[in-house]
Each structure stands twice: as C-alpha cells, then as structure tokens.
Specification:
With about 500 residues, this protein is α/β, with parallel strands linked by helices. The protein is about 40% helix and about 5% strand. The protein has 20 helices and 10 strands. The protein has a 6-stranded mixed sheet, with helices on both faces. A two-stranded antiparallel ribbon has the order 1-2. About 35% of the residues are buried.
C-alpha cells in the first residue's frame, strides 16, 4: 500500500512517467488470471468506444471472479455479481501492481484499442460522399430520370455493407450505361454524340444490337460481367427500366427485351431448345432446319438467333416463328429422354414436340410464347416433383401453357404403377383447363425436401401450389413421392400416337 504521507500517483501525474522500467517491462502473471478476463474484456470494450470513460460495468461474475476482483482493487468486501468500477480506482490499483494504467494493460492482454466513434464517423462520411458522388456523376446528371434510379440504389443500401464494393459496382454500372450504343437510350439530354458510340464496328450497330458479352468485355474487361445473375447487370437493368419507363425485369426474356431496347443483344447462340415434328412453317432458318430434321426423324436444337431469323426469300426479318400449317397444339416435355422415345417410335411421323430440358431457357420461352401468340396451344408435361410443378406453373403463367396429364388422378395412377391409367376427365389432358392468368407461385408445401421420401423412392422436395388443380399439390404433399416423367412415358407416347395419325406427310418426303 502507498504510505499515508505519500500521495497516490495516477496516469495524469508526472510521476507516472518516472516509474522504473523494471516495473513496466512485463505484466505480472497475476493479471493474466482467468478470473480477471471478464474485467479486461469489459474495460477493453468501453475504452474502444472512442468516448470518455469514467465507469465500467462488469458481470456477471462468479464467486471466484468476485474474490479475485476484490483482491486486485484492495477491497475488504466482495463486489456484486454485476459491479460498477470507476476507471480511476482501477488505474490506481494497476499502478501499484505493474506501473501501468488500464489502457496499457488491456491493450497487452486483449489487443490494440479501437476508436469506434471515430470509425463510425469516418464510415458515415464515406457513405455520404458515396451518395453525393452518385447523384452528381456525369451519367446521372445527363439523364435526370436516373435520379430515381440513384434514389433506389441508396434505399437498397450498401453492397455487403461496404462503401468501396458499392462504389466499384456502381462505377461498373455507370461505365456500361455510358458505353451503350448511340441510340440505345431514349433521347433526352445526352452528351454530345450520345452516351457513347465508341468501340462499335465500322458501319455502326450490328443487326440485332451489339452482343452483350462484347459490351461487357469492352467496358468491364470481362465478357461475363453482365451475365444475368451478376450485380452489375442488375444495376444496369434497373437503370434501363427507369429510363424506358418499364418494370424491373423478373425473367430472362424480360431482361433480353430490355437489353434489346438499349441496342444490346444477349447471347443468341448458347441457349437452345429441342424441337421435332411439324412445328414451324415459312422459310426462316429454324423452319428449314426443322424440315430437314423431320425428314430424318431427328430433333433439332434451335438457338434464339435461328428462331428469330425470318423468311429470307420474302425479305421479312424477325418473323421466323410462324406455326406450320394446320398445327393447333404442340406437346412440350421436360426431359430429353421422353423426346428420344417419341422419335424412336414415330421417326418422321413424330407429332409437334418441344423439350425444355429442365427449367425453360430464353430459347424455349421465345418459341412457346410466339407459338401461343399465333393460337398454338402448348400442352406441358413434366416431373411430378416440386421443381416439375414449379416449371409447369411458370409455363402456364409465361406462355399460356395447358398442363398435360399433370393432375392429381394422373399422379395417383403413376404411383399405382398404371402407365395407361391417365384421367379420362375433361381436365386430365389440359382441355378446358389452361390455368391462364394464374401466377403459379403459391407457397411451398411441407413435403420432404430431398433424398428419399417417407414412403420410399425419390422425395418430391418443396411442393408449390398448383392453381390448375389444387388437389394435385395436396396429393403430392400427402404422398411425398416424386414420379419422374420417364416413368409415365408410355402413357404419353400412346396419346402422341393418336396425334401422329392425323399428321400430313413431310413436305420433303
């Protein structure tokens, strides 16, 4: 203890600096006792706040921790489970033990002190500067409508809580907007020469627009930087939606349409849809390829570019999707194996068929949507599981498809192993029950989420509502067993056989 006639020194006393180095070289092991850990953590947290600290609250403390704290502070009575300790009292006790104050001790025992208040202020200042920079950016200033987009971005907040990451992504989006082909945006106060016409091939914008990967490589040095699932693409598309006064796109085909409005063509070659039979007429690329495929009894994989290519003989472009004469419906399946079986059985007499190969891509949606616009009914069959039902609902909503043998009775018949059972009711094959206008996006059921079902066999996964037949979703959830499309292929082929009888001969036959 300090003698009565010797005043106690503290961190603010000049004698604090005059303590011998031997007392300040290393903290005594007694301060490293586990029982003192709650104290050091609490003091470290309070001193790192960046605010003035006079009192530290510690707790909860067990009996051993309370006893050790009383020893350190020189108290004759044990502190409570929760104790308020003044920093002055703690500094004085530490001076006696090791010649250091609380800051020095916790910095060594716990780690360097932070200044959270200063850090919070710096962060606030950086965020404020970020939004000011965005609002005043030359691209935003050139298009007053983009102020709405900038406000949307600000409301959405920082990307991953990071100012630098957010600014990087916004910079990418703004570069893309500035690099859009001349004429790619609605006219209104563009900088001289448009936002940008640089980098286009000689002769101007290529037919169908500059390819999206080319734009991404040119502006962002990465041909995949504007792929559909990237944040940069999302920011650009939101800006384009504001500029063109349309909703933010939700689906692939909507994204494609919005890019096309801006003079940009998405990849028209990598996505394909499998087609067989007399689906398309006219002299477009896709129709001519299908006629060759039909003659050989083969399916053809068609790209969006081929589907869009019009009748070259008549000089009409963009009109490639014209139904074959006399075609009023097309059979759509989820799995290529079913199409393979149909081709083996029917060959060049295969009815009009489309295979989406899982979740429909932009080529499939383009084809089915345009066929439906010409009055051709897409009749869809897929797997009886959660994903298959979601695909069905999606096609009902997006292209007006009618479910084909996708009803509760069909599911139960498949479970019973009766390939030939199918429903004889009017709705069983989709007739009179096309589900048009339903959103197909009901809440998921509680069926088994994966692996094997509770009854054996593959599980259905999460089952959505089925607006075209609410009983179907309830039945699938109840049984919890998935039925792959291949299991009912024979029943599908029997119905296709009836359709094949009425087909006209191949025009190349």
């Amino acid at each position: 203890m300090t003698p009565p006639d010797s005043p106690r020194v503290g961190p603010s006393d000049s004698r604090w600096e005059s303590l011998s180095d031997s007392r300040r070289e290393r903290l005594p092991d007694s301060l490293r006792d586990a029982e003192l850990s709650p104290l050091w953590r609490a003091v470290h947290e309070r001193l790192s706040s960046g605010r003035t600290v006079r009192v530290v609250r510690v707790g909860p403390l067990d009996e051993a921790q309370r006893s050790r704290l009383a020893d350190l502070l020189g108290r004759t009575r044990l502190p409570g489970e929760y104790e308020r300790i003044t920093l002055a009292e703690l500094d004085a006790a530490l001076l006696e033990v090791c010649g250091r104050d609380s800051r020095a001790v916790v910095a060594e025992l716990v780690g360097p002190l932070d200044d959270q208040a200063a850090r919070r202020k710096r962060h606030t200042d950086e965020v404020t500067e970020l939004w000011r920079w965005l609002a005043e950016h030359e691209v935003v200033a050139a298009r007053p409508e983009l102020a709405e987009w900038a406000a949307q971005v600000r409301r959405n907040g920082l990307v991953d809580g990071s100012v630098s990451r957010t600014r990087e992504l916004l910079g990418d989006a703004l570069r893309v907007l500035a690099g859009l082909p001349e004429g790619g945006l609605p006219e209104n106060g563009l900088p001289e020469g448009g936002l940008s016409g640089a980098g286009l091939p000689e002769g101007g914008l290529p037919e169908g627009g500059i390819p999206l990967p080319v734009l991404a490589e040119r502006e962002l040095r990465d041909p995949h930087a504007l792929d559909g699932d990237t944040r940069a693409a999302g920011l650009v598309l939101r800006a384009l939606a504001v500029l063109h006064g349309v909703p933010v796109p939700e689906y692939a085909e909507q994204r494609r349409e919005l890019w096309e409005r801006a003079g940009v063509a998405e990849d028209e070659l990598s996505g394909t849809v499998l087609v067989s039979g007399p689906v398309l007429g006219g002299q477009g690329t896709a129709a001519r390829l299908l006629r060759v495929g039909r003659e050989d009894g083969q399916a053809v994989a068609l790209t969006p570019a081929q589907l869009r290519d019009g009748d070259r003989e008549s000089g009409v472009q963009g009109g490639g999707i014209v139904p074959a004469e006399g075609v009023t419906e097309v059979y759509v399946v989820e799995n290529p194996a079913v199409l393979t079986l149909a081709l083996r059985r029917f060959g060049s007499r295969c009815p009009p068929m489309v295979c989406v190969s899982g979740w429909p891509n932009s080529a499939a949606i383009l084809l089915l949507r345009e066929l439906a616009a010409h009055g051709v009914i897409p009749r869809y069959h897929g797997d009886f599981d959660g994903e298959g039902l979601r695909i069905t609902a999606h096609l009902v909503e997006r292209v007006g498809a009618r479910p084909w043998r996708m009803f509760a009775a069909d599911y139960l018949a498949a479970l019973a192993g009766s390939d030939n059972a199918g429903s004889n009711e009017a709705g069983s094959d989709g007739a009179g029950s096309d589900g048009a206008g339903s959103d197909g996006a009901g809440s998921d059921g509680a069926a088994s989420s994966g692996g094997e079902s509770r009854r054996g066999g593959p599980a259905t996964g999460s089952v959505p509502d089925t607006p075209w037949d609410p009983e179907l979703a309830a039945t699938v959830r109840e049984h919890g067993v998935a039925v792959p499309e291949e299991r009912v292929a024979e029943a599908l082929l029997e119905e296709l056989a009836r359709a094949a009888v009425s087909l006209p001969p191949s025009p190349m036959g």
